[in-house]
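Justification of computing resources. Each target in the renewal requires a structure prediction run like the one illustrated here; the chain below, 116 residues long, is used simply to show the kind of job we budget for.
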Amino acid sequence: MRPSEADLTAPPLAQVFTYPARMKFLAVLADDPNESFSATELVDHAGTAPSTWTAHRDDLLELELVKTVETGGSHPEYTLATTTHARLLQRLSDELDDVIHELKDPISDAIDGFSQ
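Resulting structure tokens:
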């Protein structure tokens, strides 16, 4: 099912695209949608400071783009939510990964040919 054009401009997505740090966190989660990450792992993969995660965490949870996973430990883990907007972000991430992969192949071939 494709989202309507109104869905693409809905507040949750607008509130993500205006903050590069939110995009980094969601990109990490979208790359491994079946995995959960501790705050430390998420910050490490996103390349941000822990305070950046803390500043955006509650908004991402409230926007229902990220959900908390209770692991039985003292700290929760986080994963990509299963809402329509979160799935749209995951599809966008997958599409971008495909485009990047296609772009790398000709470049790699050219570099290999040049070096021989």
